[in-house]
Amino acid sequence: MKLITLLQLAFVGLLLMSCSALTTISNGKQIDKRLVGAWEGSEKNEQMEGMTKEWIMTRNNDGTFVLDFTFYQDGERRKNVETGNWWVQDGKFYEAHTESGMTDTYTYQVLDKDHIKFKSDMMSMEMNKDSYEFIDTRKTSALEGKSIKDGSSYEKAIKVKSVPDEYKFAKENCTDCTMQSQSLSEKNGKMYDVLSLKKPDGTEVRYYFDITSFYGKMF
Predict the structure, then answer these.
(1) How far is residue 20's CA from residue 30's CA, in Å, rounded to a whole number?
(2) What is the pLDDT of residue 19?
(3) Angstrom distance (rounded) from CA 148 to CA 219
(4) 107 phi, psi to nearest 5 deg
């Protein structure tokens, strides 16, 4: 009887801890504060046979995320950055991608403060395996809370030293994309180049670059 009581108390304690971690953000959705921060993970042959994928996922406490992927396949390396919104509901984790407009759903389990286990529930892309599982590991605290400069907005604009640097970034992070336009913009006393591209599926992507360091200078 004593053992059962202890087990029951432990279960209640875990339940209360989980509930206390939930908070409602401005859009009315809930996030689990234990998932906030910078996390890294990897998988092999899960999404596609012969492909290894590594990522750094930054989940912010305002419900936004930045997902920085690196893919390795057939001796080639390519990168891709995705952004969007995340939230939790009824024990599930939702990841809505801005670029594709699709939402992935996972069940998740907080193993400890530095490890979270995810298992796919509904995926927007076709996977090599029916059950897709992985563990996110928290990165060092020095990286937590820092805004990743992924070029997705003025606030996250990437500082470059030349226009070729802009095109190099766009090529590495937007595979098979077609250039639509390049525009010059000024905001808060800084100068920016904005590249507009279109993905093969028709999705439009914009990258913002801080060109203040060389704008107007002769080389």
Answers:
(1) 12
(2) 55
(3) 30
(4) -85, 145
Mapping DSSP to helix (H, G, I), strand (E, B) and coil, where does residue 91 land? coil
Q: How far apart are CA 173 and CA 139, in angstroms?
A: 22
Angle CA 156–80–71, to nearest 5: 145
Q: Which tokens sit at 182?
A: 């390049």
Model confidence pLDDT, tens digit, residues 126-150: 655 667 889 999 986 444 444 567 8
Counting beta carbons within 10 angstroms of the beta carbon of residue 84, is it exposed (0 to 12), middle (13 to 18) or buried (19 or more)? buried
* pTM greater than 0.85 (yes/no): no
Rounded CA-CA distance 16/76 in Å is 47
Which residues 6+ apart lie within 8 Å of 201 measured at CB? Answer: 100
Whole-angstrom CA distances from 63 to 28, 154, 161, 163 are: 10, 19, 32, 33
Say if CB 32 and CB 94 are below 8 A apart.
no
Cβ distance 81 to 151 under 8 Å?
yes
Q: Give the chain's length.
A: 219
Name the burial class of residue 189, with classes exposed (0-12), middle (13-18) and buried (19+) by CB atoms within 10 angstroms of its CB: exposed
Residue 112's alpha-carbon distances to 87, 136, 213, in angstroms, are 19, 11, 44
The pLDDT tens digits of the residues spanning 52-111 come to: 989 999 999 899 999 999 989 888 888 889 999 999 999 899 999 988 889 999 999 999
Q: Do β-strands 204-210 and 158-159 pair in parallel, antiparallel, or remain unpaired?
A: parallel
